């Protein structure tokens, strides 16, 4: 089932092009062969916001629903994590992601985020991009994160599929699993109910996606330039940051 999830999310979500990521991180293109070739989709936007994780060198980070594993690798290589674990329900994702790095600080583990196979208090931070809304029991996922994060640890939860982002809603029709279409407020209240303190919540704009001039519209995805500006520059990724008390 999760294999299907992994394959269908790949098809339905947008991945940043290798070129953009090279430019952003200043990497050699040869080091970024894991980034899928350009695949443009109106839904997810770029959303590679691992750089928002406030990491002290040497800290341990969990990348929940890691997919291709780009964030776990970057959190180690660019941000200096001492240990970065990419976790994903799809074993083939974890295997492919593992084959793309020989960094001893980075590991990929397969499993279900409702039942994390990690010791209590073993991570300083969790980063998750576009994965939390696949939770069937979100309370259980949050409880597990409260357990594996240390006191003072942070959960950076980024989603491009959320209530206010009406541009994203149609993706649910293309995916089999039921997805959580939550509002910003619902994220905050779920985090608080589970026991997190909500330290911040924001709409992080995608400033990398190029927006053509008005006369290029309508496009296949947007009727007007204003709609595209709303999707990428105004709504962007909904980021909720929970802190373990
Ligand atoms: C849209 S992808 C996002 C991947 C990556 N974070 C990114 O930003 O490109 C969602 C990922 O969540 C994973 N996922 C879905 N349900 C999961 C679960 N219950 N436990 C762990 N991972 C899950 C999928 O296998 C998929 O790789």
Topology, pairings included?
Elements (H helix, E strand, L loop, with lengths): L1 H11 L5 H8 L34 E5 L5 H8 L5 E6 L2 H9 L6 E5 L12 E7 L8 H11 E11 L11 H4 L9 H11 L2 E8 L20 H11 L1 E7 L2
Parallel strand pairs: 1-2, 1-4, 2-3, 4-5
Antiparallel strand pairs: 5-7, 6-7
The structure holds S-adenosylmethionine.
The site of S-adenosylmethionine (SAM) has 19 residues, from α1.
What does this molecule look like?
- By secondary structure, the protein is of the alpha/beta class.
- The protein has a single domain, classed as Rossmann fold.
- It is 30% helix and 20% strand.
- It has eight helices and seven strands; from the N terminus they run ααβαβαββαβααβαβ.
- The chain has helices at 2-12, 18-25, 70-77, 91-99, 138-148, 171-174, 184-194, 225-235, and strands spanning 60-64, 83-88, 106-110, 123-129, 149-159, 197-204, 237-243.
- It has a seven-stranded mixed β-sheet, sandwiched between helices.
- Strand 4, helix 5 and strand 5 form a beta-alpha-beta unit.
- The longest helix has 11 residues, at 2-12.
- The structure holds S-adenosylmethionine.
- S-adenosylmethionine binds at residues 2, 5-6, 9, 13, 65-68, 88-90, 93, 112-113, 129-131, 134.
